[in-house]
Design a protein that fits this description.
Length: about 800
């Protein structure tokens, strides 16, 4: 069996071990033994070998997983404060007034005097709070291998609270982490560090980064080059990272095969010029590659490229050739053996999938592209192969794949790879002699980056259709994978006539169309009450016809903070919750934005959406806008987006059986504050939903004086369940069957009020709460209505 075939069996076994109990593996082993008795000997040998590798790697995963279970989960579930001793396991990432890293905890106790060693060192995710700028500067000097002791508060990581959002608990689980810790810098003591190879390489990496900071005087450029050359991503601005992600060129900033090829080629050429024999030079280059991979942080893509490059060089030294897929297979087996959890890391998945895609599909692409010079054909082949293979991974993890990403990759990647990357390494190398020698290569790299990034940012800020994609269904992922597997098999077996080629193209475009899910949810109204913490944000999807966004939450703003406390990329509700959800639904255009009133917890997240989505119109309450609301309205008008208001009894339809009615305010200008909230009533297929913003008792009384539905199926409870809202008279008038409360976990206002919960219970309403259940989704169809909650009731 080839290494490539063995690696696929090994991969299947790891997946089986992760998702099947060990009893199933024993069952499969027994079935294998029985089957082999009744099949031909040669076929039995092949089947036995494949199955043994698969079952063996499945058992290995269970053993590995059992060795990485948590000893601290029980105290973490109780949010216990403990004393500990341990060792820093990963580089320290300081951002503003906090720092994060993984810590290997070795001893714990209720006090320093009662510490006990754990059965095995446990990896946890530690966040350290910083109170003074001196602490921030000091913690940046901490390195992996440093010993620390002190006390911290343990807890369990949170899962996703909105559909298809980033699941922190799941992410940590595949890092071998089950517990998080919170500590203050003043409570920690840094001890004597353990010397080691990794610590040495981290120091060298820091030295190289400082040298780049001196060579590239501009902070943005030096941070970019540190990522491009050394794999240190901290210095890349959030704007540049978002632009690269949106346009599908983030892979440029990951240390990959291109880096390994360039560095190993330069090194090999250099030592051969010094008179070193070829075989000796190849062996020296293998050693250099190992050091290079450690120097750039040993990311999944760097390790994969290093292993493949090292084995390839070894075979050259032995005057033997090895197929690229064999190198790929050995790298996969080796990395999954060291750490099978890597299979769930997005960097690992993309690195191996795209590399295999290039090995398999570039030859096919070159056979199909028969025009232009060889370099253009090669560039097109690499671009199309990489785009086709990475597409499902980008949809599943990020829900975006820019419609002109292939063109950006075709134009920008060669410039960055063949000019900026070599110039950067040249600047870094000659700066070892004297910084002045780096002026020319650093100036060239800086000029090209400035020249290239300007049009890329303009493209990024343009709302190009078919850039956001809905979360893919399992059947689509399987169908796409089957297509990718069958295509090279059919091609190899002679199905590469002209009509076969066009059939492949037709099937591929059919899969792209189906990825948009054109037939899903066409006859339904889907309402998602997002969990935005202490605030409101509601997305209403009317089939495939219209999208309404009612408010966008808002992140608390802390003004007059010291500059050192500011985050590089602070959490923001609109950017980090609302926008990702809209992308995950494949929404690129919001037909109506409704700003119920000017409170920050309702409109604070709106600013992040203005440039990211196409917007049809904005509905406001008509009151004199306050500063934040006025600024948003100005931004809407700059983009020529109509800003409208309404009057009671204004009604409009979005298709048969779907009608909206504006109930409040009345436009008189007498309502202010929360009582000026826009109140809309949606009737969908006979079901009524009432959206009340932050309406309080006075506003509710005004509603009661007008035309109000005598029975409401769903009430969006006003003002997050405050005791000044949702009065008994109001509930008696509308008789809600269901009620949704949007409030933050453990918020300082005590929302929802126990009195309101009592009134809703007495009114017979079933209550849903975002603080307890995360995002709440209501789906209304012609013959049914059903609810989904992100977090199951416990």
């Amino acid at each position: 069996m080839t290494a490539f075939g063995a690696s696929l069996s090994y991969l299947a076994g790891v997946l089986a071990g992760a998702y099947l109990s060990i009893a199933w593996l024993f069952l499969f082993a027994g079935l294998l033994a029985a089957v082999c008795v009744f099949i031909p000997k040669e076929a039995g040998k092949k089947l036995s070998l494949v199955s043994l590798i698969c079952i063996g790697s499945g058992f290995y995963f269970h053993v590995y997983d059992s060795m990485h279970q948590s000893y601290l989960r029980v105290p973490a579930a109780e949010e216990s404060l403990i004393h500990f001793r341990g060792e820093i396991a990963t580089p320290v990432k300081r951002d503003g007034d906090s720092a994060r890293f993984f810590l290997l905890v070795e001893s714990v106790g209720v006090s320093r005097e009662q510490m006990e060693d754990l059965p095995g060192a446990e990896r946890i995710a530690l966040r350290v709070g910083l109170e003074q700028e001196q602490e921030a500067m000091a913690i940046e000097q901490w390195l992996p291998g440093d010993r620390i002791a002190g006390k911290m508060l343990l807890s369990l990581p949170a899962g996703a609270r909105n559909p298809h959002a980033f699941d922190y608990a799941r992410y940590l689980r595949w890092q071998g982490v089950y517990v998080t810790g919170e500590a203050e810098y003043g409570e920690l003591v840094r001890g004597e560090a353990r010397t080691g190879v990794m610590r040495l390489f981290h120091q060298w990496q820091n030295d190289a980064k400082e040298r780049l900071d001196r060579v590239f005087r501009d902070d943005e450029t030096s941070g970019y080059m540190s990522s491009l050359l050394l794999g240190v991503t901290d210095g890349v601005s959030p704007e540049t990272q978002e632009m690269y992600a949106n346009l599908g060129i983030s892979h440029v900033l990951a240390i990959s095969g291109l880096h390994v090829t360039l560095v190993s080629g330069m090194f090999l050429w250099g030592i051969e010029r010094l008179g070193v024999p070829r075989k000796t030079a190849l062996v020296c280059t293998i050693g250099m590659l190992a050091g290079y991979v450690l120097l750039v942080g040993a990311s999944a893509s760097a390790v994969r490229a290093g292993i493949m490059g090292g084995i390839g060089l070894l075979y050259q030294a032995m005057s033997r050739k090895m197929d690229g897929k064999e190198l790929w297979g050995w790298a996969l087996i080796g990395m999954l053996t060291v750490n099978p959890y890597q299979l769930w890391h997005i960097g690992f998945q993309l690195s191996f999938a795209v590399t295999l895609g290039l090995l398999v599909y570039v030859p096919i692409s070159l056979a199909c592209i028969r025009f232009g010079p060889s370099w253009l054909r090669a560039s097109l082949g690499v671009t199309f192969a990489a785009q086709a293979v990475s597409f499902p991974f980008l949809l599943y993890h990020f829900h975006q794949s820019h419609s002109v990403s292939w063109l950006v990759n075709l134009v920008a990647v060669p410039i960055l790879s063949l000019v900026v990357l070599p110039a950067g390494y040249a600047a870094l190398l000659v700066s070892l002699l004297h910084p002045a020698l780096a002026v020319l290569p650093s100036g060239l790299a800086s000029w090209i980056l400035e020249w290239l990034h300007d049009p890329l940012f303009r493209l990024h800020q343009t709302n190009v259709p078919f850039s956001y994609w809905p979360h893919p269904d399992l059947w689509w992922m399987i169908a796409y994978a089957v297509f990718l597997v069958l295509l090279p098999i059919l091609w190899k077996n002679g199905y590469h006539r002209r009509r076969d080629f066009w059939l492949y193209v037709a099937v591929y475009f059919l899969l792209l169309i189906l990825a948009r899910q054109p037939f899903s949810g066409t006859e339904e109204v889907r309402i998602t009450f997002l969990d935005v913490g202490q605030g409101d944000s509601i997305v209403v999807e009317i089939g495939k016809k219209k999208v309404y966004l009612i408010d966008a939450g808002g992140t608390p703003v802390y003004r007059n903070r010291d500059s050192w406390r500011k985050k590089r990329d602070p959490f923001e509700v609109g950017k980090d919750i609302v926008a990702p959800f809209l992308r995950a639904r494949g929404i690129e255009r919001i037909d109506y934005v409704v700003m119920t009133h000017g409170d920050h917890d309702h409109i604070g997240g709106m600013g992040a959406l203005v440039s990211r989505f196409s917007i049809g119109a904005v509905l406001v309450n008509g009151s004199s806008p306050r500063e934040e609301e006025e600024s948003l309205i100005a931004r809407f008008r700059e983009r020529r987006i109509p800003v409208l208001t309404g009057r009671p009894d204004l009604a409009w339809t979005d298709g048969p059986g779907v009608e909206w009615v504006w109930l409040h305010p009345d436009g008189s200008g007498t309502q202010t504050g929360n009582d000026a909230s826009v109140v809309l009533q949606l009737t969908a297929y006979g079901k009524t939903v009432l959206f009340t913003g932050d309406l309080e008792e006075r506003g509710e009384n005004q509603l009661l004086a007008g035309k109000l539905s005598p029975s409401v199926d769903v009430l969006k409870v006003g003002h997050h369940g405050s005791r000044t809202s949702t009065t008994a008279d109001f509930l008696a008038a509308i008789q809600p069957k269901n009620a949704v409360i949007s409030a933050g976990q453990k918020n300082r206002y005590g929302h929802p009020s126990p009195a309101v919960l009592t009134r809703l219970h007495e009114a017979g309403a079933k209550v849903f709460r975002t603080d307890l259940q995360g995002a709440i989704t209501l789906v209304i169809r012609k013959d049914s209505i059903y609810w989904e909650t992100q977090i199951s009731d416990t």
